[in-house]
Specification:
This protein has 18 helices and 19 strands. It has a five-stranded parallel sheet, sandwiched between helices.
Amino acid sequence: MNPLIRCCLALLVCLLGVAHAAAAEHKRVLILHSVGREFRPWNEYARHMRAELDRQSPWPLDVQEHSLVAARSDDPNPEPPFVDYLRALYGGQQPDLIIVVGAPAAGFIQRHRNDLFATTPMVFTTVEQRRVRTSDLTEHDTVVAVIHDFRFLFESFLRIAPDTKTVAIINGDSPNERFWQGEMRRELQPLEGRIEIRWYDKLPYEDLLKQTAALPPHSAIFWYQMIVDGAGIAHEGDRALTRLHQTANAPIFSHDDAFYGTGETVGGPMHSALAGSRRAVAVAMRILGGEKPSDIKTPSSNFAAPRYDWRELQRWKISEALLPPGSAVDFREPKAWEVYRWQILMVGTALVLQALLIALLLHERERRQTAEVQARQRLSELARANRFSMAGELTASIAHEINQPLAAIRVNAETAELMVKSATPDMAEITEIVADIRRDQERASEVIHRLRSLLNKAPFELREIDLAELVRETIELLSGLAIGRQVELRSVLPTGPLPVKGDPVQLQQVIVNLVVNGMDAMSDLPAAERRVTVRTARGDRFAEVSIADQGPGIAPDHLRQVFEPLFTTKTEGMGMGLSIARTIVEAHGGRLSAENQTAGGALFRISLPLA
């Protein structure tokens, strides 16, 4: 035979062997439900079981599910057709394992085991230990059962709701439910003196809802199950419990967490559908792995640790302080910190940064205000020093201004003395002489007052003043100096006031400084050409004072430097006068500028905002 053909045949045989081995590893599982896949609590157990089978199984699984509809009533007639159906379906190939869910399915399979699945391994689960006929169990069977302790359930609820006086028990009228009604009556008999127990198994569900909506105060409802109501109507799914929760006027508690978590029952000690399913599937995996079912002994499970629905506790005002130690509280509404932690942190960080920024800005503002106050104080001190430096230049003017009224006072006083000594003194003439003396005294006092104001050490103070009047007083103060220096001091003043906000002493100093500078600039000119003109004008928003002289003007390259500190063109000057003047004007929100006139001489403009 060709070696290539031989190799291909060997490969084909190997692939067939692998496929056969894989087929041998394939497992068939039958799940038999008691009354239908949509009935609670079995639907929850079935859902968890399917998930656990997928999770725990190392083999591919073919899972088939069937429901025992006949368990809803006492009529045995539907069972034979269902037996025939199962026999026809699995007669040729038995499943590897049968998982029996619930007591009705367990009873059915034990009655027909020999006819259907005589040697098939079975796991009886989701069944209370009292519902398993242990005498009918075979070596192919194992049980994963639970224990119902109704008295413990009721006492647990009474501990968290000690004022409860009435408990309504919701349980249907199917054969399985009638069995459990008898068991509950027996177990709860010791509580009859403490609470009133009401039964509704013979009522149609609509009448049951009306009854539970009108329960007396301090009542509770125990939900066991509702397969078939008193009118023979089956209730699948969640609708029956949901409607009861919507209409009932009392809290609902139950024995199984298949009824918990959707906001309908308070909670408490309950059987865990997930834990029970895991236990059952773990046993199923051991059987599929080759263990003998009768060798697997699984203790019956009791209620899990109590769990409570925070929403129902709040609704029925049940204090968490009454819950048993170790209880879990689910569905608690998270606090704002838990929900918006990052947002709160970000906002908090932003607020902290903003607060720090505001604090820094306030600190900086305080520093700036302090610096401004200090700068104004230094400016006032410099201005005062500048005023003292001008005092010497004003000496002649001051002496002239004072000597005139003093000389007049002396002449008038001598004249009055002679008239008083005469034989017939003219009293009217003497009265006029006294009036002249008083006027001259006031004139001398005003000169001294202006000088004291100019040299006075006072804080910077903004107040509303008439700029035109201030210019007029300044010209009067400088008139003596102008006469002494042979300078014509002109003034062109408007008739109306020029209201501005400013410190009159400092503004007067600026005007004095500029006028005296103009006189100094014309010292080399003939006396006839020495002229300083002071004008005031009013604009839309500003008042303006201009001081013009007829001197040589300012050198073009000095126009930008003329206001800088320590810059001077005088041989004996310090270079601080114009710098102080500009600083004073700018502190008043104004502007001081310098330019040369076309006809010759310098022109300084002071602009101040109108009040």
